[in-house]
């Protein structure tokens, strides 16, 4: 069993603008180091993953996604993915945030596993900055 105090060193590559934004946040929040901020971010990611694993049964929800529309092939890929999941997508709204950043909101209804699969497919695409799935259980 590995304790949180047993540290492992890793190396990661990040775009400068992402690291600069991260540094601003950890400084504003008073973290003592980047490492502490990264540990906190990983804990949050794990918590969100566990929460998503619990999305079961019939659900109504929304997927919010921010992406770079200049990323080669991304628009076609997003459209293809949405066509694969057409039975659970009820509506979508697209907004241009900046010249190359877009926000898309997708209303979904169906089995929680399918909703989660759609969100995970979208979030794994290169050029997608963030994907957030929020659902509520359908009560009868």
From TrEMBL:
Keywords: DNA-binding, Metal-binding, Nickel, Transcription, Transcription regulation. Residues 9-48 form the Ribbon-helix-helix protein CopG domain. The keyword Cytoplasm does not apply. GO terms for biological process: response to nickel cation. Ni(2+) binds at residues 83, 94, 96, 102. Its cofactor is Ni(2+). The keyword Transcription regulation applies. GO terms for molecular function: DNA binding; DNA-binding transcription factor activity; nickel cation binding. Binds 1 nickel ion per subunit. Residues 61-136 form the Transcription factor NikR nickel binding C-terminal domain. It holds the Pfam family NikR_C. InterPro entries: Acetolactate_synth/TF_NikR_C, ACT-like_dom_sf, Arc_rbn_hlx_hlx, CopG, CopG/NikR_regulator, Ni_resp_reg_NikR, Ribbon_hlx_hlx, TF_NikR_Ni-bd_C. NCBIfam families: PRK01002.1, PRK02967.1, PRK04460.1. Transcriptional regulator. This is Putative nickel-responsive regulator. It comes from Methanoregula boonei (strain DSM 21154 / JCM 14090 / 6A8). The lineage of its organism: Archaea, Methanobacteriati, Methanobacteriota, Stenosarchaea group, Methanomicrobia.
């Amino acid at each position: 069993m590995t304790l949180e105090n047993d540290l492992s060193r890793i190396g990661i590559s990040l775009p400068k603008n992402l690291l600069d934004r991260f540094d601003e946040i950890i400084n504003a929040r008073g973290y003592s180091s980047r490492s502490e901020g990264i540990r906190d971010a990983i804990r949050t990611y794990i918590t969100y993953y566990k929460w998503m694993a619990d999305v079961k049964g019939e659900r109504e929800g929304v997927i919010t996604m921010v992406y770079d529309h200049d990323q080669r092939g991304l628009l076609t890929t997003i459209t293809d993915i949405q066509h694969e999941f057409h039975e659970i997508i009820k509506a979508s709204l697209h907004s241009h945030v900046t010249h190359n950043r877009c926000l898309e909101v997708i209303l979904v209804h169906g089995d929680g596993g399918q909703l989660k699969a759609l969100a995970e497919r979208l979030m794994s695409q290169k050029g997608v900055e963030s994907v957030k799935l929020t659902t509520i259980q359908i009560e009868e």
